[in-house]
């Protein structure tokens, strides 16, 4: 696939390039839209955006089967507070007024189908979204979504996992237009004990043969040290559950973001 | 005892039934689904697998299950003859064991020593635990906290059989959430774990595989009805649908007959307190197309795609989606799907119990109720087969509670 580079893809690639020029892997925090509440979310997003090369915003979803308990509870709390698909896009639109940092939306596919794929893409583009991360959409499952995203200037990101065969890695890597998301473990999202690296180096070596986009690694990155491990091999570091845990436990999110951002430097 | 597994024209190579089905799952699982598909395709042609499954279905499950002419129910309805396909006779009490034994054998063949399952009413959990005990596999069953309360006896059975029952308290604490947890477990332990899925839902190849394993129901009806009535094809078949495995098991062997030779196929959806009440599990009558647990199907979900809680008197039908092949049958007119309420199901249960001395599962009671209505409109030369998918032992405590409530309400009114 030699898709023309979309507006969103160009902005995402530029963010990775800037980080690389500074000797860093891109720092990519994730937060659930409307968490901990719709009123508190903007300030939390501002805090993360102060450090982020790229911000991932999750649409809260009732049945997030690729996520662990931390993000699931954040989703439940955000939904209870009235944040859903359209409200998420409104929240992003408001962030866009204050920030130029690329923002990608993480969503399961059902909210896209419910709103209608074309209407969803139109609303996302209008809100200033740059790309989509689709955890339950393998790229060979529904071509229409990727084509529509491109039509509206949005980049798409699909995932590879340690279980992916070489054929799957090739297929997924070639389909990504924003960045490629490599899942560090077989499992769901969540901060874990021990090294975040696991099977990542071998997986990335394979992916780099096919990907024409930067590669980010996520799942299980929780602090400066794990971020630094991942930064040695990846172009970007995704951190989600650790921030949600920090908010929940009343920790200093700005300090944690600064720590992890520092961990993303390639050299010590 | 020789067994042949059927081959149907659906799904297509991508696991689609028309626009339904597919594989909407995290990439982590795609290689496992490919592996499962290959293993199943090989097993389907392997005489050793087929002989072992055939032997177990006969000697252990007790197949073939009888096809019983319910004469007193027929007389009561005053129209078509009503036959019951007695899946309630099966070991562990329902049709679920057909599929569980087959999948557990497949797990064993694939060298997986750990099996996981989700369960609502507990029938699939008990059947999975049973198959695991028989084959010496480790078994973990995910079950919603609400269903654990409603089905205490089945929880105890699973534990007695050596399974670990994991309580699920996320979301609505029912079957859909138990399914989410089972999928999460599978994503995490996919390399050494086999997921025994309980209905014709989930990512491809599950809907096709479960259908094939349950098709033994309809295939037996063909032979038995031929012996009883001199024809293999009835005028109508009625079966309850939640996810839809018992229904597809009796429908599929007839569904691909040419139009005109096909019986009317009727699935009864759980309408709970009524489709208009918003408290129901009727995915077709009250839902819209969406994606859940890996497949595109009719689904209870709101305008922004959040999955809505299903409600049914019967824990086994309390699921917000319905199998993709059923969705395709509905869209192409191969089968009809009709809503039956909690109250009507309770009436069906009491009818069958009083007239025939058979206490059906609350799930099957939905089909009984509708079959009686349908029989009234048909002539005595017509034949209806109802899939009596399970027995009511598991529901007796819940039915006692509900009938007691009803009596108290009547006393208040009087």
UniProtKB/TrEMBL annotation, chain A:
InterPro entries: Aldolase_TIM, RibuloseP-bd_barrel, Trp_synthase_alpha_AS, Trp_synthase_suA. Its EC number is 4.2.1.20. The active site is at 56 (proton acceptor), 67 (proton acceptor). Tetramer of two alpha and two beta chains. One of its GO terms (cellular component) is cytosol. GO terms for molecular function: tryptophan synthase activity. It comes from Deinococcus metallilatus. Keywords: Amino-acid biosynthesis, Aromatic amino acid biosynthesis, Lyase, Tryptophan biosynthesis. Transmembrane segments: none annotated. Pathway: Amino-acid biosynthesis; L-tryptophan biosynthesis; L-tryptophan from chorismate: step 5/5. This is Tryptophan synthase alpha chain. It comes from the Bacteria. The alpha subunit is responsible for the aldol cleavage of indoleglycerol phosphate to indole and glyceraldehyde 3-phosphate. Belongs to the TrpA family. It catalyses: (1S,2R)-1-C-(indol-3-yl)glycerol 3-phosphate + L-serine = D-glyceraldehyde 3-phosphate + L-tryptophan + H2O. PANTHER family: TRYPTOPHAN SYNTHASE ALPHA CHAIN, CHLOROPLASTIC, TRYPTOPHAN SYNTHASE, ALPHA CHAIN.
TrEMBL record, chain B:
Its cofactor is pyridoxal 5'-phosphate. Pathway: Amino-acid biosynthesis; L-tryptophan biosynthesis; L-tryptophan from chorismate: step 5/5. It is an enzyme of class 4 (lyase). The modification N6-(pyridoxal phosphate)lysine is found at residue 96. It catalyses: (1S,2R)-1-C-(indol-3-yl)glycerol 3-phosphate + L-serine = D-glyceraldehyde 3-phosphate + L-tryptophan + H2O. InterPro entries: Trp_synth_beta (IPR006654), Trp_synth_beta/beta-like (IPR023026), TrpB-like_PALP (IPR001926), TrpB-like_PALP_sf (IPR036052). Its EC number is 4.2.1.20. GO terms for cellular component: cytoplasm. The keyword Protein biosynthesis does not apply. Residues 62-390 form the Tryptophan synthase beta chain-like PALP domain. Tetramer of two alpha and two beta chains. The beta subunit is responsible for the synthesis of L-tryptophan from indole and L-serine. PANTHER family: TRYPTOPHAN SYNTHASE, TRYPTOPHAN SYNTHASE-RELATED. NCBIfam families: trpB (TIGR00263). This is Tryptophan synthase beta chain. It comes from Deinococcus metallilatus. The gene is trpB.
């Amino acid at each position: 696939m030699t898709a023309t580079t979309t507006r969103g893809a160009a902005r995402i690639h530029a963010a990775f390039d800037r980080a690389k020029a500074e000797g860093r892997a891109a720092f990519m925090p994730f937060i659930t839209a409307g968490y901990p509440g719709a009123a508190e979310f903007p300030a939390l997003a501002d805090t993360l955006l102060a450090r982020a090369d790229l911000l991932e915003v999750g649409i809260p979803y009732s049945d997030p089967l690729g996520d662990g308990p931390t993000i699931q509870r954040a989703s439940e709390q955000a939904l209870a507070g009235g944040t859903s698909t359209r409200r998420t896009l409104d929240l992003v639109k408001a962030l866009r007024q204050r920030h130029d940092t690329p923002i990608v939306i993480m969503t399961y596919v059902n909210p896209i189908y419910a709103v209608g794929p074309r209407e969803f893409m139109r609303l996302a583009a209008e809100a200033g979204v740059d790309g989509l991360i689709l955890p339950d959409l393998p790229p060979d499952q529904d071509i229409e979504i990727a084509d529509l995203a491109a039509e509206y200037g949005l980049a798409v990101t699909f995932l590879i996992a340690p279980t992916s065969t070489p054929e799957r890695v090739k297929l997924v890597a070639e389909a990504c237009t924003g960045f490629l998301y490599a899942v560090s473990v077989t499992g769901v999202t969540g901060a874990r004990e021990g090294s975040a690296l696991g099977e990542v180096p071998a997986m990335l070596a394979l992916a780099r043969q096919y990907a024409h986009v930067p590669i980010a690694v996520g799942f299980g990155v929780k602090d400066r040290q794990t971020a630094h491990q991942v930064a040695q091999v990846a172009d970007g570091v995704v951190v989600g559950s650790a921030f949600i845990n920090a908010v929940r436990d009343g920790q200093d999110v700005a300090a944690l973001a600064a720590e992890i951002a520092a961990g993303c430097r390639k050299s010590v | 005892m020789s067994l042949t597994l059927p081959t149907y024209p659906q799904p297509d190579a991508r696991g689609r039934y028309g626009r339904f089905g597919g594989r909407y799952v995290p990439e982590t699982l795609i290689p496992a689904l490919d592996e499962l598909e290959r293993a199943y395709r090989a097993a389907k042609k392997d005489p050793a697998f087929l002989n072992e499954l055939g032997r177990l279905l006969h000697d252990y499950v007790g197949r073939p299950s009888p096809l019983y002419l319910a004469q007193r129910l027929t007389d009561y309805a005053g129209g078509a003859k009503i036959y019951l396909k007695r899946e309630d006779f099966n070991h562990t009490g329902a049709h679920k064991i057909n599929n569980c034994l087959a999948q557990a054998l497949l797990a064993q063949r694939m060298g997986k020593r750990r099996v996981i399952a989700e369960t609502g009413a507990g029938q699939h959990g008990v059947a999975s635990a049973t198959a695991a005990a028989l084959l010496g596999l480790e078994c973990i069953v995910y079950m919603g906290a609400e269903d654990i309360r409603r089905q205490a006896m089945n929880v105890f059975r699973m534990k007695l059989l050596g399974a670990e029952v994991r309580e699920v308290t996320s979301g609505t604490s029912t079957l859909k959430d138990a399914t989410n947890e089972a999928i999460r477990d599978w994503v995490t332990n996919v390399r050494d774990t086999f997921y025994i899925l309980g209905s014709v839902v989930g990512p491809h190849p599950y809907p096709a595989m479960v259908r094939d394993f349950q098709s033994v129901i309809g295939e037996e009806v063909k032979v038995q009805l031929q012996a009883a009535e001199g024809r293999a094809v009835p005028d109508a078949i009625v079966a309850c649908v939640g996810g839809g495995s018992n229904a597809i098991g009796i429908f599929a062997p007839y569904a691909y007959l040419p139009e005109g030779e096909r019986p009317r196929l009727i699935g009864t959806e759980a309408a709970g307190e009524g489709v208009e009440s918003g408290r129901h599990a009727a995915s077709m009558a009250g839902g819209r197309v969406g994606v859940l647990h890996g497949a595109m199907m009719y689904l209870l979900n709101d305008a922004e795609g959040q999955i809505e809680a299903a409600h049914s008197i019967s824990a086994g039908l309390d699921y917000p989606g319905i199998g993709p092949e059923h969705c395709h049958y509905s869209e192409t007119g191969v089968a009809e799907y009709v809503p039956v309420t909690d109250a009507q199901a309770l009436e069906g249960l009491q009818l069958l119990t009083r007239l025939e001395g058979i206490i059906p599962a609350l799930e099957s009671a939905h089909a009984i109720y509708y079959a009686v209505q349908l029989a009234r409109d048909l002539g005595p030369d017509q034949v209806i087969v109802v899939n009596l998918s399970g027995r009511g032992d598991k529901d007796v405590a819940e039915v006692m509670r509900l009938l007691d409530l009803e009596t108290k309400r009547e006393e208040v009114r009087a």
